[in-house]
Amino acid sequence: MTALASLPDHNGFFGDFGGQFVAETLMPLILELQGCYDAAKQDPAFHEELAYFQRDYVGRPNPLYYAERLSEHLGGAKIYFKREELNHTGAHKINNCIGQILLARRMGKNRIIAETGAGMHGVATATVAARFGMDCVIYMGSTDIERQQQNVFRMRLLGAEVIPVTSGTGTLKDAMNEALRDWVTNVDSTFYIIGTVAGPHPYPAMVRDFQAVIGRETRDQMLEKEQRLPDSIVACIGGGSNAMGIFHPFLNDDSVAMIGVEAAGHGIETGEHAASLNGGVPGVLHGNRTYLLQNDDGQIKDAHSISAGLDYPGIGPEHAYLKDNGRVEYVSITDSEALEAFQLCCRKEGIIPALETAHALAEIVKRAPSLPSDHLMVLNMSGRGDKDMMSVAHYLGETMEKGDNA
Amino acid sequence: MSQQATVTHAEVTSRITRRFEALKQQNRAALVTFVTAGDPDTATSQAILDGLPAAGADIIELGMPFTDPMADGPSIQKAAQRALKAGQDQHKTLDMVRRFREHDQDTPIVLMGYYNPIYRFGVDAFLREARDVGVDGLIVVDLPPEHDSELCLPAAEYGLNFIRLATPTTNDARLPKVLENTSGFLYYVSVAGVTGAGSASSEAVERAVARLQLHSRLPVAVGFGIKTSEQAADVARAADGVVVGSALVNCIEQAATREDAIRAVHALTAELAEGVRGARHTG
């Protein structure tokens, strides 16, 4: 392995990014977690257990699917979907939750907390907490609760307590602040399952490792189907966990181009977006140094996206590093471009993607037509769109009674 | 990470050290008051700040407002939101200290907050300006000793104390690391939690202070959840300093007018000061 795929260093840094910028109350916990995770990584029993749940509970491996009709329609690259939306709970999020809850159990914790934006991570966390019989508290911004009511109900059905967060702007970053506050208050009993490749070390590396199963499977499946590696991989980015998961096993393969797609909201020039890499500057928030949406005074700005799951003013530190060294190209897609691609995918492939994933699809729509037919392009179909029916109907100007789309 | 130099306490003889030494002579603890700069607006906040020493504050912690104060409870979060909404920023906060120093050369001022606004300002530029306007120390909640090269060690070069928080989760193995580059005083957070949360028992505080004093000669100030004169007196018997924040900030939230806010903060400060000053005589 070359340096690129072996980061972070032992202090949790990817170049200048990452680190452990947390209050002293949390430091002993973070260090304990780091030690336990390092030990688990070396333990074959942990990997066996993880593999068992990935197979029989999550439903892995999921397929690498040739999106024939979309490829024909766009008339260029040969497009494959990595079908993470077929996982139990409908998104890639559970890959990480299964890994972390097994770790929580090893550490003797019996109470799980998590933050959630779109609710997918909350649902995945509530799911594994139910499976392992642990108490579960999910922090969710009040604004997000409003636009993701079905996921709120799902979490409650699964036995989780969903606590609305009204502080700040009532979105994902505020939910994360509140989860951190819970953690400092309940240090002994509680394990914090962070949903993305952000937060203090070891979270960015640990979440990435649990998500890297996506890229490892993609690699094997592509070699089997096409006898070679893909030419490009496209994934959407909020905090960046599905992208990091599919990118990481290919970082050392120079022939594989990687494209991360941020949410441009109404357009980066309008200031109403969630594109931390394309429209932010480096700063320190939630335990790590990374690119952040912030003003000149270092105050964090609200992110905007049609997709609640991309609505975060930061980004995983490894992405910040990969942007600066040029290994991954980071682009952005607006709300309306994502909505177009969302509908195209529904009609051409019979797959309703999550609005988050629709951002990556929109980038494929832009790129594929000018590429040769032997260009192998992989899209990480990170989640399904059932949760987004109300929002999409709203944006398309259709009226729908609450409950019609259950 | 680069090799970190160790700052010895002797290198920094600050207003903070002088103040604690003077109070030790008087056999009493320091009352350390926290208010958020710019809450509810810069002018009112300046009036609050300027009147704190006369009301009985021995050391002042001035909060630098931040949008995402992860280690703070609702009171101080809301204070930061009020301040930011009124247009407070790092420049205005530093300017408040400059104005304060025009009439008070003795009361130590510690700026307290989170790293990002300092990082965005530029560490060197911030430290230079902080020193020039008369800031004495910094408490930056999200910079543990693992990151001393970011701000703690540069601050020492500018003669600014870097005050660290120790908590109930800071065990004996970790304590030396926490103390290593700490100067001025040590801020003991008496309960694991956010600011304003319930307070620890006086026995627990006494034990904790005794443990810290075994490892360090620095004065130990204790905070989190102290709201009344009686609680302040309890803590003042064991600790070298008593920190009160949320209770003062609540006075601002509850005040009907700006004048009321100023009056209420100073009145509570006076009450707390009475508790702290009488503690070791009546105890």
From TrEMBL, chain A:
<comment type="similarity">
    <text>Belongs to the TrpB family.</text>
</comment>
<comment type="function">
    <text>The beta subunit is responsible for the synthesis of L-tryptophan from indole and L-serine.</text>
</comment>
<feature type="domain" description="Tryptophan synthase beta chain-like PALP">
    <location>
        <begin position="59"/>
        <end position="383"/>
    </location>
</feature>
<dbReference type="InterPro" id="IPR001926">
    <property type="entry name" value="TrpB-like_PALP"/>
</dbReference>
<dbReference type="GO" id="GO:0005737">
    <property type="term" value="C:cytoplasm"/>
</dbReference>
<comment type="pathway">
    <text>Amino-acid biosynthesis; L-tryptophan biosynthesis; L-tryptophan from chorismate: step 5/5.</text>
</comment>
<comment type="subunit">
    <text>Tetramer of two alpha and two beta chains.</text>
</comment>
<dbReference type="InterPro" id="IPR036052">
    <property type="entry name" value="TrpB-like_PALP_sf"/>
</dbReference>
<dbReference type="GO" id="GO:0004834">
    <property type="term" value="F:tryptophan synthase activity"/>
</dbReference>
<dbReference type="Pfam" id="PF00291">
    <property type="entry name" value="PALP"/>
</dbReference>
<keyword id="KW-0057">Aromatic amino acid biosynthesis</keyword>
<feature type="modified residue" description="N6-(pyridoxal phosphate)lysine">
    <location>
        <position position="93"/>
    </location>
</feature>
<protein>
    <recommendedName>
        <fullName>Tryptophan synthase beta chain</fullName>
        <ecNumber>4.2.1.20</ecNumber>
    </recommendedName>
</protein>
<dbReference type="InterPro" id="IPR006654">
    <property type="entry name" value="Trp_synth_beta"/>
</dbReference>
<keyword id="KW-0028">Amino-acid biosynthesis</keyword>
<keyword id="KW-0822">Tryptophan biosynthesis</keyword>
<keyword id="KW-0663">Pyridoxal phosphate</keyword>
<dbReference type="InterPro" id="IPR006653">
    <property type="entry name" value="Trp_synth_b_CS"/>
</dbReference>
<dbReference type="InterPro" id="IPR023026">
    <property type="entry name" value="Trp_synth_beta/beta-like"/>
</dbReference>
<keyword id="KW-0456">Lyase</keyword>
